[in-house]
Amino acid sequence: MLEKNFIQENLSTVQENIAAACAKCHRNPDEITLISVSKTKPVSMLQEAYDLGVREFGENKVQELCEKYEVLPDDIHWHLIGHLQRNKVKYVVDKAALIHSVDSIKLAEEIQKEATKKQITASVLLQVNVAKEASKSGFYEEELANAVEKIKSLDRIRIQGLMTIAPFVEDPEENRQFFSRLKQLSVDIKQKNIDNVTMNILSMGMTGDYQVAIEEGATHIRVGTGIFGSRNYKGNQ
Ligand SMILES: *Cc1c(COP(=O)(O)O)cnc(C)c1O
Predict the structure, then answer these.
(1) Burial class (CB in 10 A: 0-12, 13-18, 19+), 212
(2) Ligand 1 shell residues, CB under 6 Å
(3) pLDDT, tens digit (0-9, with 9 covering 90-100), for 190-208
(4) Segments of the chain with pLDDT less than 50
C-alpha cells in the first residue's frame, strides 16, 4: 500500500475538520474555500500540493508571491494575505486573484491607479482589525463605513468582502466573538446594497481557529501550518 505523504495527510485532516465544522452548523462544505498558506515554503512543496489538487495559495509577501507565480502553473489563484505597501502594488495587482489586505483608503487609491494602467479590475477585501490589536493593520470597525463609502467609487476595484486576522490564542473559542463581529459587519454593509460592493467573502480563520471561524460564517479560511507544517522563523507571521 502506498504511504500517504505529509501534505496529503494534512490536507485530508483539514478537509475532514471543515466537513465536521460545516455539519455542526448546517453549512455545505462547498461554501468554504481552503487557502493553503505557503509563505516561506519552497516551490517544491507548493508543487506537491498542486499535484494533490490545491489551486488556492496564500502568500503574505509581494516578492515571494511574484517569484512563485512565475514558476508555478497559471491556473493557480494567488491570495495576497499580508500587509501591502503602496510602492509594491504595481508588481502584484495583476497576479493576485484576491487581495485580502486593503487596510487604508490610500492603498485602495494606489490599487485603482495601477489597475487602471493594466486595464484590469482588482478584487479586494477590506481588512478589519476587529480585536483592535496595536500590532495588526486593518480598519477599525468605526472606520469601515467611511472606507467603503470612499472606495466604492474607485471603478477598478471590486470590494468582495471582509478579512480579519484574529488574535493568537490558546483556546479558539476566545476568537468566536471576533469572527461573529466580522460577520455582522459584513451583513450591515451588504444591507446597504452598494454598487460595486458585494459581501460574499468572509476571510477568517487560520490553523488554530478555522473550525470556529466556519461556524461563524467564514467563506475563506487561510491555513498554513496545518497543511505545510511549522515555519522556520520566529515571529507571528
Ligand atoms: C501566516 C498567515 C496565515 C496562516 O497561519 P497558520 O497559523 O500557519 O495557519 C493566515 N493568515 C495570514 C494573514 C497569515 O499571515
Answers:
(1) buried
(2) 37, 39, 60, 81-82, 165, 206-208, 222-226, 237
(3) 999 999 899 999 999 999 9
(4) 1, 235-237
Length of the chain equals 237
Please give the distance, rounded to the nearest whole angstrom, from the Cα atom of residue 236 to the centre of ligand 1.
9
Per the structure block, which three cell numbers stand in for 23?
Answer: 455539519
Q: What is the pTM of this model?
A: 0.96
- Which of 18, 102, 222 for a ligand 1 pocket mutation test, highest count of atoms within 8 Å of Cβ? 222
Grouping H, G, I as helix, E, B as strand and the rest as coil, residue 114 is helix
CB 31 within 8 A of CB 52: no
Q: How many CB atoms sit inside 10 A of residue 136's CB?
A: 18
Partners of 33 in the beta sheet? 220
pLDDT for res 196: 87
